[in-house]
């Protein structure tokens, strides 16, 4: 994989064809969030959205841990890296963008979770579109237990993603949750043997990347743009986004590939 220059001391951003892998890389602190990490992630999400050849992103953590949440001291301190300090000044709300709270990527993001994914780590997972979790991973939104609030957006997002009773259980008790329980709640897509989360996420990413990129992006946008709308209004938005996909060159290529019994070669147009 190619290491991209938007990487920072606490965030590796690597590209492999249609895929970008974003690795939270502060293992000595269980990959707790820092300014260096959040700036790198904010730039990574913007890169994934802007690059036509990128179709999927993966978010993971270094050395067997996803993310142990916020390190308030590290998040409030300036970086020792001059380029990171400059980008922190240039990117409005880089904390929220890095946390997937603002300016969500226009392409799917898959989380590959090993070890701890608690507090801000679970908030990051909730901000991703597909979730692969190792069987011994620990998840949980601990904020209420510490008299804090989940500022990454989970108080809003979680009850929209999983049944209300499960969401309130996680949010109000602040308890730890196993991978198996998270799967039963519908919070994650797959539970895999320890050490296999990234490999399985890459398989899933390849599957998504083989779909028509215009269709994938339109489906994501339709969901996001219609939250809270009545069905009649939501369908108007869906039609406005869907009809251009139906008339695209990719759609024609999809039909040809089906008839000719071969893999489709989508170009995003």
TrEMBL record:
UniProt keyword list: Lipid metabolism, Lyase
Protein name: Enoyl-CoA hydratase
Keyword Lipid metabolism: yes
GO biological process, one term: fatty acid beta-oxidation
PANTHER family documented for this protein: (7AS)-7A-METHYL-1,5-DIOXO-2,3,5,6,7,7A-HEXAHYDRO-1H-INDENE-CARBOXYL-COA HYDROLASE (PTHR11941:SF169), ENOYL-COA HYDRATASE-RELATED (PTHR11941)
CDD domains: crotonase-like
PROSITE patterns for this protein: ENOYL_COA_HYDRATASE (PS00166)
Region described as Disordered: 250-269
Family, per entry: Belongs to the enoyl-CoA hydratase/isomerase family.
InterPro entries, sorted: ClpP/crotonase-like_dom_sf, Enoyl-CoA_hyd/isom_CS, Enoyl-CoA_hydra/iso, Enoyl-CoA_hydra_C
Domain of life of the source: Bacteria
Gene Ontology MF terms in the entry: lyase activity
SUPFAM superfamilies: ClpP/crotonase
Primary gene name: echA19
Lineage: Bacteria, Bacillati, Actinomycetota, Actinomycetes, Streptosporangiales
